[in-house]
């Protein structure tokens, strides 16, 4: 059957106040001044640069929540994939995928997965921006020739171990939480492996034996759950940072 996809169908009708209501970040205000250094003065270019990066962090956080809202708009328009395969199929096929889809559902599904991709890739720009800010705040050494001294969220946490152990421990709790780890896994599958929202080939090989069956697939309900968990981990990270980094007045 020919399927006609309508990219971004009805997107001008999205009310983000409604479609983001399930986001843990809704109503949460990002604290300002967490990464400013205490001894600020008029010509302190470090703090001027830090304020610029804090603005980037805020914008990226807002972008993540907006993309969650757009994804939820198409999710609630209808994607009937709870039963994503049927065997035998309605017309006698050995396996029928998406047996409850009508044409409109394919457009909803296409648009949902587009914003899922953007959501997961953007979410980790939030974490990498936090890593950048921690490197600046604590004057961590940057050496592009040594992976341990390259700016990243993970490296920043590791370097905190010796100089701010309470912050190190609390950030590690977030990093190893299910919310964060499931988000990392889904992001990696989207960026590097088989997309979770596409049915894989069903072919597997173990100890030289090749088998074939129904492919693996994550339903939109499962993807939504991981998205909300990742948003929850972002909020938890901000709360940890606010707890351990005394707020300073931002430069005006």
Please characterize this protein's 3D structure.
This protein has one domain. A hairpin with a 2-residue loop joins strand 3 (203-206) and strand 4. The chain has 7 helices and 4 strands, in the order ααββααααββα. It has a two-stranded antiparallel sheet. Strands 3-4 form a two-stranded antiparallel ribbon. The longest helix is centred in the middle third of the chain and has 35 residues, at 103-137. The protein has helices spanning 16-19, 45-77, 103-137, 153-163, 165-175, 178-192, 220-244; strands at residues 85-86, 96-97, 203-206, 209-212. It is globular. Helix 2 runs antiparallel to helix 7, helix 3 runs parallel beside helix 4 (153-163) and helix 3 (103-137) packs parallel to helix 7 (220-244). The protein is mostly helical and 252 residues long.
């Amino acid at each position: 059957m020919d399927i006609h996809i309508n990219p971004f169908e009805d997107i001008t009708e999205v009310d983000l106040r409604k479609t983001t209501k399930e986001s843990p970040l809704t109503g949460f205000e990002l604290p300002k001044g967490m990464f400013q250094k205490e001894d600020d003065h008029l010509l302190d270019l470090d703090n001027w640069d830090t304020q610029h990066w804090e603005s980037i962090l805020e914008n990226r956080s807002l972008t993540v929540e907006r993309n969650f809202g757009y994804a939820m708009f198409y999710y609630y328009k209808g994607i009937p994939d709870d039963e994503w395969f049927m065997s035998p199929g309605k017309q006698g096929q050995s396996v029928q995928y998406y047996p409850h889809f009508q044409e409109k559902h394919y457009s909803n599904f296409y648009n949902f997965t587009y914003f899922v991709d953007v959501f997961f890739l953007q979410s980790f720009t939030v974490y990498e921006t936090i890593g950048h800010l921690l490197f600046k705040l604590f004057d961590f050494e940057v050496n592009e020739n040594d992976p341990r001294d390259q700016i990243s969220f993970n490296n920043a946490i590791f370097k905190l171990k010796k100089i701010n152990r309470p912050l190190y421990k609390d950030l590690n709790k977030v990093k190893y939480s299910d919310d964060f780890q499931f988000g990392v896994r889904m992001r990696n599958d989207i960026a590097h492996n088989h997309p979770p929202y596409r049915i894989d080939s069903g072919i597997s090989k173990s100890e030289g034996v090749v088998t074939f069956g129904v492919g693996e697939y994550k339903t939109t309900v499962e993807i939504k759950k991981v998205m909300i968990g990742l948003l929850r981990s972002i909020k938890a990270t901000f709360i940890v940072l606010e707890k351990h980094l005394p707020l300073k007045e931002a430069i005006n």
